[in-house]
Amino acid sequence: MDILRQKRLVQLFLFFWVFILGLIAQLWLIQIKDGYLYTCLALEQGSRWVALEDATRGKILDRNLIPLTGEKWEDRIIVFPMAVDDKLEVSLDLAEILGAEYTTIERYMEGGACYLPYNITPEQSKAIRRMGWKGVMVLPVQFRFGERTLASHTVGHLGKISSREEYLDLIGQGKKVYHYSDLVGKTGLEKYYEQDLKGSRPQRAVRVFTDARGELLGGPGFEVEDQVEDKERRDLVLTIDSRIQQIVEDVMERRVAKGAVVVMEAGSGDILALASRPGFNPAHLEQNLGAVVEESFFDRCTALYQPGSIFKIVVAAAALEEGAVDFDSRFTCYGEKENLIRCWKDGGHGDIDFLHAFTDSCNPAFARLGLNLGASKLIEYAGRLGLNNQSITGYQLPFDRRQDLDLIGAPYNLVNSSIGQGPVLVTPVQIASMINAIISDGRYREPRLVKQINKNGGSVAREFPADTGREAISPDTAGKLRRLMELAVDEGTGREAMVTVFGGSAGKTGSAQVGNEKGQVNAWFAGYAPRDNPCFVITVLVEDGRSGSESAAPVFRDITEQILRIE
Q: Hey, is 50 helix, strand or coil?
């Protein structure tokens, strides 16, 4: 009997300690792990406030910690209707000062605390301050998006939660607190990193405390909180350089109505600029509504296109690596009279060596090379050079299944594939990574867009290491390809891409037929500069252009010369 009693005491003792440990764990979760969250919720319940920032979110920064969103500060009228003594009189006077409709101001006076959506002049600001209305003040508000946001397709845009399904999805992703009035990421990095960027409280706000019934408490009144630490929000640090991004976008505004430009740091694979046109302004989304909305929000940098003669780099890499050709190998081109595939040069190139077949972008020569190599070799080398890898470190977009290199091996596809037409589809980012492999002695590296995620205080929360790479082709083959691309600019179709200062440039043109009645093409130029110790890889795509040499190569030259001046 004593033994049974001892067992029961031991069991009771164990049950007691399990209960205590569970209670301690729950208290740790509430007070330590999630303590900050509950503190913010308690503050939210016990006060009324107006955030002095339009979006309670972390920043999206370039590699030098400069915000890409172009954030700005503007004075706004802050209104706490529950504190206003005579709403009618204040509404009438405010309407007169602002030159606004009285009924519009009156609606704000009947709602919750907010700032009014009016740009106000210094004179209007002084007039409102002179009135000394209780519950009405003028304070600077920080707006996330300025008049010129850089890399808008990559950064993305914000919008209010539009449905119950979206709300439930957001709260199901983590422990962040959401309200239907919150601005959340709708596209780009804003959406991809929503759970990191979302903050729990504004860093700047004007606040007044209330009792349990929501009535204003006596005491100090309105408090302006400044530089409050928000432990929940995170800042994204990208590989993009805002100086280079600005140059690219300025050139595109002048020269590219529709297309994409990718600038990559030579060697590392870090993306320094991503620009797509037509673009949009995240600060004024209403300007992008209408028939062209899909065009404006479509990011061409990561979209699939036929590469045209840019793909001849892959064919050349396979042929040189496999020993199928050397620079002196001979071909015959009959131009428009070719039975296999006609050349862009109607009169043909006649008897031509491989060196000049590349620099002059001879279609029949590369079609024959493709047939000699076979589909399996083209598929293999396209994969080695990353043309089947849509991944970007820090920004993993859904895989577009239209990209399928195996289609090169389908019946009747090999000839067209050898000149970058038919089923061959690539993105401008992939082309830049391929060129980067060639100038890196054949070592392919996955492109990187996000370097790290920082805590609100600036310390690193998470890092995205650069890819160390893998060998795609031999250094000898890579060196020969660089020689070919140099000659393409010196003597061939890429002459308009020649940078005559800062060590010269090299690259390859491409002209992919669109197939419309106007005979337009998607024009490409992909290359690097300087020739010795390259610093930058640049890929240019101009939709509905004339040819790579006429439409894309001059854009490459313009951008390259300006970027090299920075360095």
A: strand
Does pLDDT of 551 surpass 60?
Answer: yes
Owner of token pair 């020269």: 255
Distance separating alpha carbons of residues 149 and 156, to the nearest angstrom: 10
Q: Judging by beta carbons within 10 Å of its beta carbon (0-12, 13-18, 19+), is residue 385 exposed, middle or buried?
A: buried
Binned at pLDDT 50, 70 and 90, residue 219 comes out as very low
CB 540, CB 274: distance < 8 Å: no
In 226-322 the beta strands, taken as DSSP E runs, fall at 234-238, 259-265, 271-277
Alpha helix positions (H), 360-404: 363-373, 375-384
**Residue 373 three-state SS:** helix
**DSSP letter string, 177-190:** ---TT-EEE-SHHH
- Quote the strand ranges of 469-545, DSSP E: 470-471, 506-513, 521-529, 536-545
pLDDT of residue 395: 97
- 149 three-state secondary structure: coil
For 152-193, what is each residue's pLDDT tens digit?
999 999 999 989 999 999 999 888 889 888 899 999 999 999
Residue 263 has pLDDT above 90, yes or no: yes
The answer to whether the beta carbons of residues 462 and 453 sit under 8 Å apart is yes
CA separation for the pair 518, 495 (Å, rounded): 25
Which ranges of 83-204 does DSSP label H, i.e. alpha helix?
Answer: 87-98, 102-109, 122-131, 152-155, 164-172, 188-192, 194-197
- Decide the pairing of beta strands 234-238 and 60-61: parallel
- Side-by-side strand order, sheet with 234-238: 60-61, 234-238, 450-455, 460-463
CA distance 186 to 189: 9
What CA–CA distance (Å, rounded) separates 4 from 238? 67
Q: Return d(Cα 273, Cα 109) in angstroms, integer.
A: 46
Torsion on CA atoms 402, 408, 414, 416, rounded to nearest 10: 20
d(CA 71, CA 89): 35
Domains by residue range for the chain, with CATH: 53-237 (3.90.1310.10), 242-281+300-566 (3.40.710.10)
pTM of the model: 0.88
- 49: enclosing H helix or E strand: strand 47-51
Query: From CA 256, how far away is CA 523, in angstroms rounded?
Result: 11
